[in-house]
Structure prediction request, 641 residues.
Amino acid sequence: MSKHEHTPSFKSDLITFGLLMLLTAITIWASYATGGTTVLAVLVAMGIATVKATLVVRNFMHIKYDDIIYKLFIGAVIIIFGVFITLLAVDYFYR
Amino acid sequence: MTDTNTTAMEQSFWNEKKGIFSWIFTLDHKRIALLYLYAITAFFLVGMTLGFLMRLELIAPGQTIMEATTYNKVFTFHGVIMIFLVIIPSIPAVFGNFMLPIMLGTDDVALPRLNLFSWWLYIIGASMALLTLVYGPGSADTGWTFYAPYSVNTDTNVTLLLFAAFVLGFSSILTGLNFIVTIHRLRAPKMTWFKMPLFAWSLYATAWIQLLATPIVGITLLMVIAERTFGIGLFDPALGGDPVLYQHLFWIYSHPVVYVMILPAMGIISEILPTAAQRTIFGYKAIAISSMAIAFLGYFVWGHHMFTSGMSGEARVVFSFVTYLVAIPTAIKVFNWVATLYKGSIHMTPNLLWSTSFIFNFMIGGLTGLILGALSVDVHVHDTAYVVAHFHYTMFGGTIFVFFGAMHYWFPKIFGRMYNKRLSYISLTLTFIGFNVTYMAMLIVGGQGMPRRYYDYLPEFTTLNQISTVGSWVLVIGILMMIYNLVRSAKKGEIATANPWNGVTLEWQIPSPPPLHNFVKAPILSDKGPYDFSILDQVNRENLEN
Prediction:
């Protein structure tokens, strides 16, 4: 069977959905626990959002079942985005 | 043989359907390519006229034919037309659309309706841009880069022009998306990644830039519109915004887009040279991978456009260093092109001369780029005519020269007729001389300190400006002569054979012009890759039998 024909089960989709809801609840809780507007609050919120985005891309967008080349390109895009932020930071923190 | 070619003409995509609606609502990739060709040619002529008028203004110090404010508007619109309406779509939308499916051995792009939608977005965006000339408070005067905070504060037609660029960006994104899907899904059986023609590789690298970088400028332009409309304070320092942030966001897109403009041109050179030399390309894999490397590295060098913007010293050093990395894959390509010609069985054709002219121009454009990439030098020549000349050496002497070369290479395939070669050599000579006189003089006067974007200059710059203006006259005569030759030949030229240059890639294995669904029988694919000239006799035999 081709990888492209793989269909995730309803159960696995439900588990992913449950995880996303749980992480949303943790985000709300963490915003109170970390003071809401502190650097730590932003880092925690961004960290949880990254995990959620990974779950969506991997499970709901079926990248988990796709060819290696698509995973490579997604990796390249993440690297490019990371470099954007790093190079911007080199300007902003040293200006 | 003539009968065969006349039949090919009758059975081609040109004659499949008639009437205006069969064109503007067509799903055929070849007709969509030609819709782009006609629109882009029209906009090129407008942009060229504006450039001609700017050079005429600069023939003498002081006001000559236009006021300073008019000059600002003219160079803005010249830039917007040439960048957004001509160079960015030119090669991918015209030759990519026409040739990519054929070179891959398929009958159309993967998403034909999306392809037509891209063209309509292009026309809508172009119409909006043209509307800014006649509507409301007057044409924009910001320059094509729309730098904040001036673009936020000027009362000219910036908002509509920004939105036009936003719409044009979507056209570009959708074309890139279509090419990526086509290359992944529709390659002929047995055509593995490293058996794809290099033009397809260059379009693939380009498409990823279109897909990933264009949304950034789209959002940035919307942010300027929001700033102008609601006064949010994103880029205007008076409202607490950061104008340098605008430049970051703009150039994060606009530097990679330089490779959207040049990579497809490099791909075409990699097609023309093996055919002209009748031998396989030197370093196929190196050229293919260098295209991807340029696309990847192009994302990390945008800051070299901002060395004098007030960016931090540390960032300037980093960007200057990273800029030099792009020179490596570019130099690999140039080396391989020259090596392909070395000891080849060279057939002198107009398209070969356009290609070698490109290499000459692009070497000057590339080397002046290295000079500009050096932080210590750039701060002195920034915003001078030197930068303008460098840019034109890469974009005009580079991309547009290759566009003309590609027209001469694929003209018999597209139109089924041959142009007047003697006239094409004369027009090429005039264009090449005119181009180099115009921009070499500009390069020198810029190095001497003449600033860009001024309608006036100091008396000591007069002679070089006059030389440059006279060069522009020769350049325009050469281009008009070329267009006359091609337009006339499309109707009245001698009927062309299926393979006039003795090429072996798949487009030379089908009739000229191609039938609606491109292939009437399975093409010949060599196990040795796309430039295996040992199959040439077989290709030509099959063409005679078709």
Remarks:
- Chain B touches chain A at residues 208, 212, 244, 248, 252, 296, 299-300, 303, 310-315, 318-319 (CB under 8 Å).
- Strands of chain B lie at 417-418, 494-495.
- The CA atoms of residues 1 and 544 of chain B lie 7 Å apart.
